[in-house]
Write a structure and sequence with these properties.
By secondary structure, this protein is mostly helical. It is built from 14 helices and no strands. The relative contact order is 0.19.
Length: about 325
């Protein structure tokens, strides 16, 4: 169980991560002249220099050798890098193809998927309200699928891939900077290969669209590093259920941007699906707040109970007859 100070630190990192992720659609829109593949490769390639700067400044090298001696953990890092690459590509494509609202739906669903993963893989037990929330969320997906005549696959793939990433990060047990740095090392060579091929084909906006575009693509490293490092630091300090609650922040920002900045359509059937998802999240929030209050009350009464027990034991010992040696 994480200590209270660890949980507070994890919450701070979580707010930072999801707040930054919430406004990232604005940045990807600035890069719409580039293909989603070039933006993805730029994210991966330019993240490595940023990670190295963090490691040099903080002198955080001691974790590398132990990790390389543990093939299982190293394999989990490779899996995390692969899964987050899929998530990044689909999200970038969705934003620049005019699907910001469906992308936000994916991240609204994500807490429900994280909770389901906690049950399936970590054997966490759900309370009745949590089961109800998962059921309502499933109903929301079905409503949208029937109304649109197709499954909201963008939302589902985004939710499943990011929940998988969070689950894998729990198994890796590396802090934010270490985990991000190792993932970018794994991503770097494939990303560099993609950028070279695009340049040879004359399809690189980095080379052809001026200094401004080149600087924006290079800035993908910082835009990627900051929230991902914060998320990694949060994931190792908080249970999956708490991470699920924090995830409301990012899709809320994305939803507002989809309506007000990108002016995407919001027909009644989409509203119905979103309202059901929000109902599920409200159930989760209510349950979490009620459980937190109960835990705090139990923690306050525990010292009193221990003191009473101690007094009873002391009285019993005082009443015992003394024997001489």
């Amino acid at each position: 169980m994480p200590s209270p100070s660890d949980q507070r630190t994890g919450l701070a990192y979580g707010f930072m991560a999801y707040g930054l992720w919430g406004v990232l659609p604005l940045y990807w829109q600035l890069l719409s002249a580039a293909s989603p593949l070039e933006i993805l490769a730029s994210r991966m390639a330019w993240s490595l220099p940023v990670a190295l700067v963090f490691l040099v400044v903080l002198r955080r090298w001691s974790w590398i050798r132990p990790l390389l001696r543990q093939p299982k953990r190293l394999g989990l890092v490779v899996a995390a890098a692969a899964v987050i690459s899929v998530n990044w590509y689909l999200y970038i494509w969705a934003v620049n193809a005019g699907h910001v609202l469906e992308a936000s739906l994916g991240y609204f669903i994500n807490p429900l998927v994280s909770i389901a993963f906690g049950v399936i893989f970590l054997r966490e037990r759900l309370r009745p309200l949590q089961w109800a929330a998962v059921g309502v969320g499933t109903l929301a997906v079905l409503v949208m699928a029937v109304a649109y005549g197709q499954v909201p696959w963008i939302a589902l793939v985004l939710a499943l891939s990011f929940a998988t990433y969070g689950l894998v990060k729990k198994g890796v047990k590396l802090d934010g900077i270490e985990g991000f740095s190792m993932e970018t090392v794994i991503q770097f060579l494939p990303a560099l290969g993609i950028l070279v091929v695009l340049g040879v084909r004359g399809e690189s906006s980095f080379l052809s669209d001026g200094v401004g575009q080149a600087l924006l693509l290079a800035g993908c490293g910082v835009a990627t590093a900051l929230p991902l490092i914060a998320f990694g630091a949060s994931a190792v300090r908080l249970p999956l259920s708490v991470l699920g609650m924090l995830q409301y922040l990012a899709p809320t920002f994305q939803f507002v941007l989809g309506l007000t900045v990108f002016h995407e359509a919001m027909p009644p059937e989409r509203w119905a699906g979103f309202v059901l998802v929000w109902l599920a999240l409200a159930l989760l929030t209510w349950d979490a707040l009620r459980t937190a209050r109960t835990s705090r009350a139990a923690a306050r009464t525990a010292p009193d109970a221990q003191a009473v027990m101690s007094r009873v034991v002391n009285r019993a010992q005082a009443a015992e007859p003394k024997t001489s040696a």
